[in-house]
Specification:
Largest sheet: 9 strands, mixed
Radius of gyration: 25 Å
Helix content: 25-40%
C-alpha cells in the first residue's frame, strides 16, 4: 500500500524535499498533486535517512509547500515497448508526440536497464557502413562499438547525424536490412533543429526504421537526464528481444552533462572540474557501456554519441571523460569547415580502436587495413611539409614535398569532402584512397606490402 504525504519541507528550483519518508528508494517515481488538482511526475534523486529529494519533471511553479500531496508509486520509470516503436516519435520520457496515438505495449522496461555481465559480452566484429569515406575508410564503425563524434558550436554535426541516419546500413550483402534499426535521441535541441531532424528523416524515407526521442531546450532539465536512458532501453529491446542490429545516435551529450551539472548544483553537491559533479564519469559510463553484443543473442547495439566541445577544447571534462570510456573518436575541425569542406573530419586525431578487428579480408577488402595506415602516414607527412612551407615558402620545397602538398589538398577535397547526399560504398572509398596514393611515388608507400601494392597501385596525377 502506497503512502501519501501532505506538505513539503522545501522547494528549490525544480526540486522538492520531503521529510519523515519511509521505504522510498532511489529513482522511484513520485506523483505530486497540487492544490488545483494538477498531477505532476517526479523522480527520487537522493535519499538521506528519512529525507527524500525529488526532481519534478514539469517544474515546481505554483506548488504549495503546505497543501501539496505526494505519493510514492513504488516503481521506477518504465517505458512501454513493442516493435511498433519503429517509425514513432517520442518525447524525452518515451511518450508519443507524433499524433499517432499511444503505443500498444508488449512489455514495460525500467529505463535504467540491467548491467551487461562482462563474461556474457561477445567481441565486436564486422562493421556498419555510413557511406562517409572519412569514417568508413579511416575510423570504421564496428558493430557493438561506441564511437563518439567530437564537434564544436557552429560545426555541422547535426547534418552529419542526419547523413549517418539516412545512409547507415549493415555491411554484409547477404544480411536482411529489415534487421537493422536506428534509435535517435536529441537532448536540449531548439525547435527548429528538432523539426530539421524530423523532416530530414521523413523526406529521405528512412523514418520507418528510426525510433526518435526528442527533448527540447524548453523541456524540463530532468527530462534531459532521462532521454538517453529511454533511447537505450528501446535499443536493448530491439536488439536483445528481436535480434536486431541497432545504431543509437545521441546528440548532444554536452546538453546532457550540463543538465547533470545543474541538477547537482541544485542539490548542493560539491562540484568537481568546471563545476561538473565528481560522479560524471560513472554516470556517462552507465550510458556508454550499454552498447555491445551478447554471446546468446544475435542483435547488437552500436553507439554514436555526439558532443560539442566548449571552446573547441578537447581536454574539457566532457570530451575527456567520453574519450576514456569509448573506443575512439571522430573529430570535426573548424579550419576544415572554414575551407568549405563537408564533413570537416580531421583524420589525424580521429581513430577507431576496434577498427582492426572488423575490416580486411572477410569483412571489407583485403587491402583496407594497409590503405588506411598509408593514408594516415601520408597525411601526417603533409602536416610536416606544411610546417616547413610556412617557414621557407612552398616554392622552395623539394619535388617530393610538393607532391605531398598536392596529395594533401586532393585528400581533403576528394576523400574527406563529399556531398551531403553522397553515399559512398566501401569499395568506392578504398578506390578513391588508391587514386590519391597514386599521386605519390611507389617508394614512398612504405605501409603497403609488395603484393597489395602491385595489385592496386597505379600512378596518377592531381
Amino acid at each position: 500500500m502506497s503512502i501519501e504525504y501532505l506538505g513539503l519541507r522545501d522547494i528549490t528550483g525544480s526540486i522538492i524535499i520531503l521529510e519523515d519518508v519511509k521505504d522510498a528508494f532511489f529513482e522511484e517515481m513520485v506523483e505530486i498533486t497540487m492544490d488545483s488538482g494538477e498531477v505532476r511526475l517526479g523522480r527520487v534523486i537522493e535519499l538521506l535517512e528519512d529525507v527524500a529529494i525529488v526532481q519534478v519533471f514539469e517544474g515546481t511553479t505554483g506548488m504549495s509547500s503546505s497543501n501539496t500531496r505526494t505519493r510514492f508509486t513504488g516503481k521506477p520509470l518504465k517505458i512501454p515497448l513493442s516493435k511498433e516503436i519503429l517509425g514513432r516519435k517520442m518525447n524525452g520520457l518515451g511518450k508519443p508526440i507524433d499524433g499517432l496515438g499511444n503505443l500498444l505495449a508488449d512489455v514495460r522496461w525500467d529505463i535504467n536497464g540491467d548491467p551487461i555481465n562482462p563474461i556474457a559480452r561477445k567481441y565486436p566484429r564486422n562493421y556498419i557502413q555510413t557511406g562517409i569515406s572519412a569514417i568508413d575508410g579511416l575510423t570504421t564503425l564496428i558493430r557493438g562499438q561506441k564511437l563518439p563524434v567530437f564537434s564544436g558550436n557552429g560545426l555541422p554535426h547535426d547534418a552529419l547525424a542526419v547523413q549517418i541516419v539516412n545512409q547507415a546500413q549493415l555491411s554484409a550483402e547477404n544480411e536482411d536490412e529489415d534487421n537493422f534499426a536506428i534509435v535517435f535521441a536529441a537532448m536540449g535541441v531548439k525547435n527548429d533543429v528538432a523539426d530539421y531532424f524530423t523532416q530530414s528523416f521523413t523526406s529521405s524515407g528512412v523514418m520507418e526504421k528510426v525510433v526518435t526521442f526528442m527533448n527540447l531546450a524548453n523541456d524540463p532539465v530532468v527530462e534531459r537526464i532521462v532521454t538517453p536512458r529511454c533511447a537505450l532501453t528501446a535499443a536493448e529491446y530491439l536488439a536483445f528481444e528481436h535480434n536486431m542490429h541497432v545504431l543509437v545516435i545521441l546528440t548532444d551529450m554536452t546538453s546532457y552533462c550540463e543538465a547533470l551539472r545543474e541538477i547537482s548544483s541544485s542539490k548542493g553537491e560539491i562540484p568537481s572540474r568546471k563545476g561538473f559533479p565528481g560522479y560524471m564519469y560513472s554516470d556517462l559510463a552507465s550510458l556508454y557501456e550499454r552498447a555491445g553484443m551478447l554471446k546468446d543473442r544475435k542483435g547488437s547495439i552500436t553507439q554514436v554519441p555526439i558532443l560539442t566541445m566548449p571552446n573547441d577544447d578537447i581536454t574539457h571534462p566532457i570530451p575527456d571523460l567520453t574519450g576514456y570510456i569509448t573506443e575512439g573518436q571522430v573529430v570535426l575541425d573548424r579550419s576544415l569547415h572554414q575551407k568549405g569542406i563537408y564533413p570537416p573530419i580531421i583524420v589525424l586525431p580521429s581513430l577507431s580502436r576496434l577498427m582492426k578487428d572488423g575490416i580486411g579480408e572477410g569483412y571489407t577488402r583485403a587491402d583496407h587495413p594497409q590503405v588506411a595506415n598509408q593514408l594516415f602516414a601520408s597525411y601526417a607527412r603533409v602536416q610536416e611539409v606544411k610546417a616547413l612551407a610556412s617557414v621557407i615558402g612552398e616554392d622552395e620545397l623539394t619535388e617530393i614535398d610538393q607532391k605531398y602538398m598536392a596529395f594533401g589538398r586532393a585528400f581533403e577535397t576528394g576523400f574527406v569532402a563529399q556531398k551531403f547526399d553522397e553515399n559512398r560504398v566501401m569499395e568506392a572509398t578504398l578506390d578513391i584512397g588508391w587514386r590519391l596514393l597514386g599521386m605519390l611515388p611507389k617508394e614512398e608507400l612504405t605501409r603497403l606490402d609488395d603484393i597489395i601494392l602491385n595489385k592496386y597501385y597505379k600512378a596518377t596525377t592531381e
